[in-house]
Amino acid sequence: MGLTLLAQECRIGSTTYYLANVKANTLIQNVGYASEMENWSDMSIDERMQREIKGDRVAEEIVPYIVNDQDWFFGALIVDVYKGWENVKFQSIKDVVDVKFDAYDSTLDNAGFLTLPDEKSLIALDGQHRLAALNMAIRGKNGIPGSVQLSDTLRETLVPHPEIGKADISVIFIKHTDDNAKIRKIFNKVNRYAKQTSKSDNIITSEDDMVAVVARALFSTDDGPLKPVNKFEIVNWKSNTIPARSKQLTTLSAIYSSCEMILSHYDITPKIMRNESDLEKAHKIMQDYWHTCITEIDVFKTYIDCLEKGKPLEKLRKENLLLKPVTHMALAHATSIILDAGFEFADLIPKINKIDWSISNPVWTNILVTNSANKKMIAGAQALRNAGGIIAYMLIGDKVPLAERERLLSVLKEASDDENIDLPAVIE
Asked: pLDDT digits over 299-311, tens only?
């Protein structure tokens, strides 16, 4: 009998394809994965890596999205008719139904019924992570693809939700070619030319990521501590960098990272589902943090004053590391260490104001700034961890865990090329 679907026959270049609406249950029962292809063993390492399913990502991110978000949505999957294309049948609606209204005539030219034979092999060419997520969401742990290995902990989180099987999924069916060349080309181009959204784009648009929602509110609401000063936007939300001559204070990316690091202390992360209780809590925490920074840290107060009075800022921003987005993230990392040690951030503001934040302070050399004439900032996760750890030690001393102190000493020795160097003095 085969599988019959209402479909649209379409053509791009030399490729004929069919666009159809398929129930999720039908999709997971009929479509397989690249690793199930007969020529899997003959594929190159690069091809295999592109086609391997990242099971942890599926189970931790995509499945909860499907299960918990009533507004979940997927784009169309591209399915390779690996076997059976010669027996695929397409019949125009006009061959079946008498079209009586002229306006419908041309519209229905390519609309009809697509029948896929019983003897077929369908492989997800693009969208196998979505397919795997649907399998796991609908069937629970019984829906885990054979090629995917998950920890027992993740497996136990997968509970069947058969009602999701009723969802309508858009699918594009294309013909497989004998030499695989055309299919490989399509796969490559679909993935290569599909432009990924930037981190800033994701932060700006996400309503599920509570960290993103909180980060935006810090500068976009009337009570946000980072709201515009005299209508001047102090947060660069369009780019991850701030030009040397810019008067802006920080970037959206830096704010997000700062929120992420501090909120992790409260077990609020981008991966947990949005709930209004945690969102309200997170909002207050970060509002208080940045309000304290802006109103009580000396260099921030000076910055705001200069903006309000139209004073030049270039020299101040060039010389003071605390006006650099990288340092904002490092301070946030330090704050997470401080919170873990049982201290309150606000109580340490007097000490923060005593730290020498000048770019010439040797403690920051090869930690936050390069040892070169132009003194470029050092970014990256490791740099933030190192700088944040050093800041935390300067504030709370031996309350920083011993293992972290030993690591920091090793970092400083390497950065200074001095085996006799010690940790910086603790601020009194």
From this structure: 999 999 999 998 8
Two tokens at 105? 């005539």
CB 376 within 8 A of CB 370: yes
Name the token pair of 13.
């270049």
CA distance 423 to 428: 15
Listing DSSP states for 27-85 in one string gives: HHHHEE-GGGSTTGGGS-HHHHHHH---HHHIIIIIHHHHHH-TT----PEEEEEEE-G
Mean pLDDT, all residues of the chain? 87
Query: CA-CA distance, 27 to 20, in Å (whole number)?
Result: 11
Angle at 418 between CA 415 and CA 421, to 5 degrees: 95
Which DSSP string do the residues of 103-135 spell out, in sequence order? HHHTTTTTEEEEEE-SS-EEEEEE-HHHHHHHH
Q: Are residues 359 and 318 in contact, defined by beta-carbon separation less than 8 angstroms? A: yes
User: Which is nearest to 210 in space by CA: 319, 119, 144, 286?
Assistant: 286
Q: What is the pTM of this model?
A: 0.67
Strand 77-83 with 121-126, pairing: antiparallel
Q: Which residue has the tokens 């209508």?
A: 231
> How far apart are the C-alpha atoms of 70 and 374, rounded to whole Å?
52
Using the Cα atoms of residue 254, residue 325, residue 345 and residue 227 in order, give the sign of their dihedral: negative
53: tokens are 């399913």
